[in-house]
Design goal:
single chain; 334 residues; alpha+beta; Beta-Lactamase; Helix Hairpins; Heat Shock Protein 90; 3 domains; five-stranded antiparallel sheet; five-stranded mixed sheet; 23% strand; elongated; two-component regulatory system; histidine kinase; HATPase_C_sf; transferase
Length: 334
């Protein structure tokens, strides 16, 4: 049976291994080990902890802590670097699961290691491109705002001296440009994932989101309580855009309601405005899509990016009053 297992394991490029619970005895490893770690299998078998000599020195302590957690009974996944040779350093991912006896005591640690160097290179390249995009967007936004501020100031002076509907049109166009710049800058800064999460109350994040919104005669109601595990600043940005969307798409004052879903797996934002035509629901999250003259068509795209980055889902439907309702699900409550 052991021979059959070895023959099967040797057909893959992934390293399969089994250690004793204290990591001092290597009970199984396939031939792929040498191709990734750059160490002969015989040397590894003779000294099981010698694999740590192949780990990049900046990652050794983290790998050791991971082995200790596994010995304590924790299944885990870790990414780290391996010095295959003096010239080549690889990124690898290891996953393992403790094997316990009938009493729950850890008898051995079974797992596998695979190379992920290409993936890490792509991720780093994406980070660099996002940083370049953000820097470019910031520069363009700054360069555009300077002439817009000059134009806006002169329009205000001209409106003091004379009344003209054309001046009002120009003033509205400048305001729309300012909104467009803000939305483009926000969109450029959105990352594909959330790196840092913290706990924040649902009520607090909703209330703070409304502080930057000109509500005029519109009102905001909050229903339900919960503690979100999220990036608070980005969730606030998403909610701000949902609130603005409700106000901008209504000719009259609206009542906006933000609440926890009855299923406790998410929250919603709804209004009693005109709602969203079913034919438009498949397009509302597309960049540039809008049916109002003052909109940039980027607000809901920003919302979608933030929700996706958290690993959540968002859907649009009709509220009980006939308005728009956005449901965010797969949310982690603490």
């Amino acid at each position: 049976m052991n021979q059959q297992l070895r023959e099967l394991a040797d057909t893959t490029d992934d390293v399969f291994w089994v250690f004793s619970s204290d990591w001092e005895e290597l009970r199984f490893v396939n031939a792929a080990y040498e191709a990734i770690f750059g160490q002969p299998v015989a040397e590894f078998e003779a000294n099981p902890l010698s694999f740590l000599d192949q780990v990049h020195r900046d990652d050794v302590d983290r790998v050791i802590r991971a082995t200790e957690r596994a010995s304590a009974g924790e299944s885990l996944q870790i990414e780290y670097r391996v010095n295959k040779s003096e010239a080549f350093t690889l990124w690898v991912e290891s996953r393992c699961k403790p094997v316990t006896d009938a009493d729950g005591n850890v008898e051995s640690i079974a797992g596998f290691t695979r190379e992920i160097t290409e993936r890490k290179i792509r991720e780093q390249s994406l980070v660099e491109k996002n940083e370049q995009l953000e820097q470019f967007a910031s520069t363009v936004a700054h360069d555009l705002r300077n002439p817009l501020n000059v134009a806006d100031g002169n329009i205000e002076l001209a409106m003091e001296d004379s009344e003209s509907e054309y001046l009002d049109i120009v003033s509205e166009a400048i305001a729309a440009m300012d909104v467009l710049i803000e939305d483009l800058l926000a969109l450029a800064k959105e990352g594909a994932t959330i790196d840092h999460r913290s706990q924040v109350s649902f009520e607090e994040v909703v209330e703070t989101s409304s502080e930057n919104i000109v509500m005029t005669d519109s009102t905001l109601e909050i229903r339900g309580r919960g503690l979100l595990n999220c990036d608070p600043s980005r969730v606030r940005e998403a909610l701000e855009n949902l609130f603005r969307n409700a106000i901008e798409h209504s000719d009259t004052s609206v009542t906006i309601t933000a609440g926890i879903l009855d299923t406790r797996d998410g929250f919603y934002v709804e209004d009693d405005g005109p709602g969203i035509d079913p034919c438009d629901r498949n397009h509302v999250f597309e960049r540039g899509y809008t049916n109002v003259t003052q909109g940039s068509g980027l607000g809901l795209a920003i919302v979608k990016n933030i929700i996706d980055a958290h690993g959540w889902d968002i859907d649009v439907c009709t509220s009980p009053t006939g308005g728009a309702r956005f449901e965010i699900t797969d949310v982690e409550f603490v």
